[in-house]
Structures are given as C-alpha cells and as structure tokens.
Write a structure and sequence with these properties.
Pathway: Protein modification; protein glycosylation. This protein has 844 residues and is mainly alpha-helical. 62% of the residues lie in helices and 4% in strands. The strands form three sheets. A five-stranded mixed β-sheet has the order 6-5-7-9-8. A two-stranded antiparallel sheet has the order 1-2.
C-alpha cells in the first residue's frame, strides 16, 4: 500500500476519509503542496527576470556552462586559471558535480524533446531550485508517512515543507546553489533508508539508499551529515536491542554501495574511510559484521543461554582487540585525517575556531532563538509536540523507522544551534514533526468520532466490547509478523503488550516492571480509552486543531513575506529615491557588464573574495579570489594588499592585477567588511594570531561620527571606497563609477608587463607530475621582496621544485655554453683579423 494512500493497517470499519475518496483527497493535496512549493519560489523571476542570484550560484552556472560546452572528460580535468589568479583552481577535483550534471541532463533532455520544450541553460539553472524544492516537498511527505504510519501527517508535513522559510532560504528561483539539490537528495536518502527497514523482506532497498546517498555526495559537502545520521540510526537500533539480519543487510548494502560511490569523486577521495568525521558510520558497519559473525557462530554451534553469550563475548572481545591494534598501527602514520575547521566549530565555541576566514562568514555564527523563529515560525512551537508523539510511537510500536524522526530532530537541532547555516537541516524535520503533531490530533479525532459512531449508534453502549474489538484488530496487525506497519499512535498496542506479558507471567512471580505496568500503565491506558477519556481527548484535539487553523494563515503570509525577501538577488534590488520613486538598482550587473565590454579579455580584476564568482561569471574576467576559499594564505595576501597604505599596496598590486573593483555606497560595502579584511590579513605571517575585533576596530575602523582612524584613512581600501578619500592618479585611475555609486572600478597604473608575461608562461606553473593537467601557478619572482604583504600561499610539490631546479640548471648550462661559444667566436675573429693583417703585411 502506498504510504500516502492510508494507514498501513487495514480495518474492517474504514472511515470514508480513509477509503478511495480519502486517498484521492490526499493525493490532490500533495499535488497542491508541490504547486505551492514551486510557486512561492518564483518571486524573483516575476520581479527581476530570469537571472542568477548571489555569489556562489554564478560559479555553479559557469561550471554548468563549461560542462555543457566541453563534456565530462574535460570538465573532470578542468584547471581554471581565470580564478584564484595566479594560482588557479583545479575545478575537477574541488567541485561537487551533482548539480551541474543534473542541470545539463535536464537541459539536454528538454532540447531532445523539441523546440516546444527546449529552454536555455540559463533558464534551466534559474528554475532548477524551484523544481527541486517541489520534489523535496513530496519526499518529506513520503518520509513522514514511512516513519509515522500516518497519511494525514504526511499531507500536513508536505504543506508545511512547501513554504517553510528554512527550506525556501536555499531554494528560490535563481539561487542556483548546491543546497537546492542537496536537501532533495538528503530527503530521498532518508526516505529510502527508512523504507528498507519496513519489514524483514525489504532489506534489499538498502542498496537504493546507498545510491541515493551517492547522489547526495555528488550534490553537496553536507553529505557527512546524511552519512552520520543513517549510521547513528542503525547504531541506536542495535543499542536498543533491535539488531536483526534485515538491519544488518540493509545497512551493509547502504554503506558499501555508498562508500564505493563516494570515493569516485576526487573532492571526497578516501575521506569516508580516513576522515574522523566519517569514521563513525564505518565503525558501525564493522560492528554490524562482528555482530552478524557472532550470531552465525552461535547458530552454527546450536548454542543457547550462557554458552551463546560466552561465544558472543569472545567474538566481541577479539574484534575490539583487533580494532585497537589496527588504530594503534595506523594512527602514527597519519592515516586518519583531522577534523576540518568548520567541523571543529560544531563541537566547541564558535569564536575559538582559530580561523578568522571562517569566523567572518555570517552563516557560520551560532544559531539563536530569533533565527529559529525567523526560519521556522510556528512550526518551531508545533514540532516539539510531533517529537513527543514520534517518540511515543516508537516506544509503543518498536518500529525501526519510527525512531528516525526523533533522532534526526535532536541531531539537526544540535548542529543548527552551533552554526546558523545548518538550520537548512531543520526544514525537513520541522515540517515532518509539525505534520506528525497535527496529524496525531486529526487521526485521534477521526478515530474517536468513529468510536462514538459505533458506541452510540450501532452498539448503543458496550464500551468494553469496543476495546476488545480494537485489541483484536491490533492482534491481527501483529500477526502479520512485521509485514505491515502498525497503525500510528495506537494506545491499544501497549495494552495488548501488557496483556500478553501478563499471560506469559501467569503462575509465576512477576517482575517489578510487570507490577508497575499492571498497577500504573494499564489503568492509564484504560482511562485513556474510556468514554470520558475519549471525550476529553476529542475536546483537546478540537481546540488545538482550531488553534492551528487560526495560525495557518499568518504562517502562510509570513512564509511568503520571507520568500519575497529571500528572493532579492544580490546583483540588483529595488530602491526608493528621495522623491519617493521606486527604481531598480542594477549597479552591480552594469559594473560587471562594463568590465566585460570595456576591458581586454585577459584583464585581471582584483576585488575582495566575495565578488570573485561574479567577476568570472558575469564579466568573464580573471579574478584574484572567490567564495571557494580553499587557500587561506592567498586570501590573507589579498586582504593585506587592500588594507595596506596606498603606496605599498600599489607596489604589490601592479604585479597581479590590471583593475581593482570595490563595492561602495554604504550598507554591506567594503568599508563595512574592512575589519574582517584586516583580521584575516593579520592571521598569516610573522604576527600570526587571531586579533580581537574590538582591538581591530580601534586601530582600523571608523568612530561613531564616521571618522576613520589614521591607519584606516591611510589604507588603499578607504581611499578606493570612500568618496572622502582619494588615490593618486599616478597609481590608480578611476575609470568607472556606477549610476548609484555602488561600485567603483580603478585601472592600475604602471602594470608590470614582465610579471604578466612570466605568469602567462606555462613553463612557470608547478605541475604535480610530468604531463599532468594539475598545474597550479605561482607568484611572480618580483613579489618575493614584499614579505610584509605577500606570504607563501602554495607549497611547491617536490617534483615541481626539482623540475624548476633542473630547468634553471639547463638555462645556466645554456648560458655558459653560449658564453663559451661567443668567446670562441670572438677569439676566432681576432685570430682571423690577425692572420689577415699579417698576410697583408707580407703582400706589401
């Protein structure tokens, strides 16, 4: 039975809403939810047109264009020299290509269907997040149905997921970013994994969960959360005594297929079996094999009781000793990779990560109650009810998938509390738990209404007989041996379990737990199912559902308001002039187009790393750094160059760039970011260390009246950005100022052509092997004397160093041979002249 069509348990007295009409209604509401999810993400398209937003999406689009134009082979070995100049970036080994491959596949499919369906690649990338936002909404419904057993909960979860800001924040049309696909891939992986645990015969679906996880790996670096979430779920089931052959097989298939697929991506490599943040699931896999071996050994020997446990303990102890020996042998070799800086920040105070580049990003700040309210709104308060219901559902049913939602909620909340960007993980689970909470109220109300109909109309009393019938139905469900899921939230399951326990204990002394159950639990269950209990429950359900309905419209309006606000692209926005007129401010787009149309194609543009993707994507010009932030040292060099005094800065910049672009005009301009630039610049070099922000602002900042400190006033950055400052035209000449003065572009005067030519020579790149495509550039030799600003940013491979030394030796030998040849030629010429002179003298 479909998880959406109704409960997994069949009843003889099916309510009309659970019949064919009910199934059709649910499917219709799901379709409406998918439409809502698509429609709410189109604000940007309606107001600004089909344009890529923000910063990272421009790199993603540029990479997608490269893949569409050149194919996978060239894409996988693409070393981009238009970014991170002069080092370059090996895109083929640093990108998660799932989104690019998916977008190009959609583009080619639409093109193959004919001109009526064909779309430009730009349009495919613009609508991509909205499409997959709708798909993620459907998958959340399936996940909720699978884990809760309630079709009504699934439908409500889909309606919440379709508009909740925690999801739309990364999936508005034009926001062509990895998360727009990753959330969909994550929900798919979670759903298929839970589906593989439905019964003893569904373990093979674990292989599909592994494939879904591979797709997640291809989509986003947050795949580690998905891997650890599945591993945590499997490990918790084992610890709670729910190990089974089907669980072992499902998880083994998931981990083996998922790991084999993940290591195929160069950006991942062997991290799944070496990185500390991914070894937990690997140990769960190994532990599963040990458990399976122990059980197989016990079964083969026909052991039982104490003998069986002796065999198990020996197996477990032997495995533990072997694991300790392996770890002790591998650890000194450096086999286990360290935790990344961002991951470390999830387990200690954020301000102590030690990396100011990470600290400078607003999304890396800790989550706050205000952030939860902003991105979850009313679901932030309803989800706890769903958490309690889901936990109770697991306790009552012991259904493996029922445990997943509570675990997911606790884990996602912890990480979102450490880094506000990870609130994106809370979107699906908050929607699911909201659906579970509201669905429980609706299901219970319908169940009580059905009971009242039987009790008042059909049987005219006989409450006890109703309970017996419910018990009979529950017994039928249990008799299926796990082939069908039990009905959600059924209190009669606990009642039945208590009766069975009492029967098994008849004639013997019961345990304390049995006494507690008989004296406390069963009377509560009986009261819960009594006429008065049902009436009270119905009243509470009606009140809470009315409260929810009264807040549905405010939640809807708030979500649309947030979606409209999050749909504003960073490259353009609407502003209000002093005369009250509303205008479209396109300064950033126009500035990048000016670069594209008015500068040579090989121009190099220096700007803070935020704008690197847009410079390469919109202006099609070489940038110094961008949002990939793979090289801290290089960004620190850029920061020092911009914050240095004008004269010193020009001595360095003339060797690296032809133009300098800055954001001005207030707001989030470069002056507002200047303390972070100064802090990042100070973090590398002889004075390494994280500088306190208050100390920075006292030295490099502006006071409350807007007056700069002496160091700030003397810096190149202040003179380029502020209209109160001015640079010397002998060093920097302003060539463009945007209409609303949001962007200023300067041409670098007296650019070093010697350094430019040296950097353009492929012989000066440092390949990691002969004939390799992986050939990073290096700083020109002229920068070696500016040690106060430029620090080493790339460790030269041993092969490259040897190659350069060999080249230098050959050049020296060539020069020496040329000098010797010139000396010999000169000597021969002198001898010839002397011989000719002597011959002339003899002739005379």
């Amino acid at each position: 039975m479909s998880p959406i069509s109704g409960h997994h348990r069949k009843r003889d007295d099916v309510h009309p809403l659970e019949g064919a009409f009910g199934s059709f209604a649910r499917v219709a509401v799901l379709a409406i939810a998918a439409y809502f999810a698509y429609d709410i993400r189109l604000f940007a398209v309606r107001e600004y047109g089909r344009i890529i937003h923000e910063f990272d999406p421009w790199f993603n689009f540029r990479a997608t264009q490269y893949l569409a134009d050149n194919g996978w082979k060239k894409f996988s070995t693409w070393f981009d020299y238009m970014s991170w100049y002069p080092l370059g970036r090996p895109v083929g080994t640093t990108i998660y290509p799932g989104m690019q491959v998916t977008a190009v596949s959609i583009y080619n499919t639409l093109k193959a269907l004919g001109s009526n369906y064909a779309m430009s690649l730009n349009d495919v990338c613009v609508f991509f997040p909205a499409w997959f936002g709708a798909v993620a909404t459907m998958l959340v419904a399936f996940l909720t149905a699978e884990c809760s057993g309630s079709a009504n909960s699934a439908v409500i979860a889909a309606l919440v997921m379709s508009v909740v800001p925690a999801h739309t924040m990364r999936s508005v049309a034009g926001g062509y970013d990895n998360e727009s696909l990753a959330v969909t891939a994550m929900c798919l992986t979670f759903f298929v994994w839970c589906r593989s645990l439905r019964n003893e015969r569904s373990w093979w679906i674990g292989s599909l969960a592994g494939l879904a996880y591979v797709y997640m790996v291809a989509a986003w670096g947050g795949y580690t959360f998905v891997l650890n979430m599945v591993g945590l779920h499997a490990a918790t089931l084992v610890l709670l005594g729910q190990y089974s052959t089907s669980l072992h097989r499902a998880y083994s298939l998931f981990w083996i297929i998922g790991t084999l697929g993940a290591i195929q991506f160069p950006v991942v490599g062997l991290a799944p079996v070496k990185s500390l943040e991914q070894l937990g699931p690997a140990f769960v896999f190994l532990g599963m094999q040990v458990l399976a071996f122990g059980e197989r050994l016990v079964k083969s020997r026909g052991a039982g009781g104490a003998e069986a446990w002796r065999i198990r303990v020996n197996v477990y102890a032997g495995a533990a000793v072997a694991a300790c020996v392996a770890i002790a042998a591998l650890a000194p070799t450096g086999y286990f990779g360290p935790l990344s800086v961002r991951v470390k920040g999830l387990f200690k105070m954020h301000t102590r990560t030690g990396n100011p580049l990470v600290d400078s990003v607003a999304e890396h700040q800790p989550g706050t109650p205000d952030a939860y309210w902003r991105y979850l709104h009313y679901s932030y308060y309803v989800a706890p009810l769903g958490f309690v219901v889901s936990s109770a559902h697991y306790v009552k049913t012991r259904d493996a998938s029922a445990l997943f939602l509570p675990l997911y909620a606790v884990t996602a909340y912890y990480f979102a509390n450490r880094m506000v960007r990870l609130i994106i993980f809370l979107g699906p689970i908050a929607s699911s738990l909201t659906g579970v909470g509201a669905g429980y109220l609706l299901d219970d109300l319908i169940d009580n209404a059905r009971w009242a109909q039987r009790y008042l109309v059909v049987r005219d009393g006989a409450e006890g007989s109703d309970d017996s019938e419910d018990d009979s139905n529950d017994a039928k469900a249990a008799a299926t041996n796990g082939k069908e899921k039990p009905a959600p939230f059924s209190p009669n399951l606990a009642k039945k379990a208590g009766k069975k326990a009492a029967k098994s204990k008849s004639g013997s002394q019961g345990s304390v737990a049995d006494d507690f159950k008989a004296k406390m639990i069963e009377p509560l269950v009986k009261t819960y199912n009594s006429k008065n209990g049902r009436a009270t429950r119905s009243l509470v359900c009606v009140v809470l559902l009315l409260w929810g309905c009264s807040h549905a419209r405010p939640f809807w309006d708030y979500s649309h308001m947030m979606a409209r606000g999050m749909s504003q692209p960073s490259v353009m926005f609407k502003g209000t002039l002093q005369d009250g007129r509303t205008v479209m401010v396109k300064d950033y787009v126009e500035a990048y187009h000016w670069l594209r149309d008015n500068t040579p194609e090989d121009s190099r543009v220096m700007a803070w790393w935020d704008y690197g993707y847009q410079i390469a994507g919109m202006a099609n010009r070489t940038s110094i750094a961008d949002g990939n932030t793979w090289n801290h040292e290089h960004i620190a060099n850029l920061a020092r160059a911009l914050t240095a005094p004008e004269e010193k800065a020009h001595r360095v910049i003339r060797h690296l760039a032809d133009y300098v672009l800055v954001w001005a005009g207030g707001g989030a301009d470069d002056l507002a970011k200047s303390p972070h630039l100064f802090r990042i610049g100070k973090s590398i070099g002889h004075d390494t260390g994280t500088v306190d922000m208050y100390e920075i602002q006292s030295k490099f900042g502006v006071d409350q009246y807007g007056r700069p400190t002496p160091m700030m006033a003397n810096s190149l950055l202040y003179k380029l950005v502020s209209f109160q400052g001015k640079v010397s035209e002998e060093r920097f000449r302003e060539v463009y100022t945007s209409k609303f003065r949001k962007v200023r572009i300067y041409e670098v005067v007296n650019v070093s052509q010697k350094s430019r030519q040296w950097l353009a020579d492929p012989e000066n790149r440092m390949c990691d092997a002969p004939g390799s495509w992986y050939c990073p550039g290096q700083y020109p030799p002229a920068l070696a004397k500016f040690t106060g600003i430029i620090k080493p940013a790339y460790r030269m491979p041993a092969f490259a160093k040897q190659q350069i030394e060999e080249r230098a030796r050959r050049e020296a030998e060539k020069k020496e041979a040329a000098a010797q040849k010139a000396a010999e030629k000169k000597a021969a010429e002198e001898l010839r002249k002397a011989t000719d002179g002597q011959a002339a003298h003899e002739d005379l």
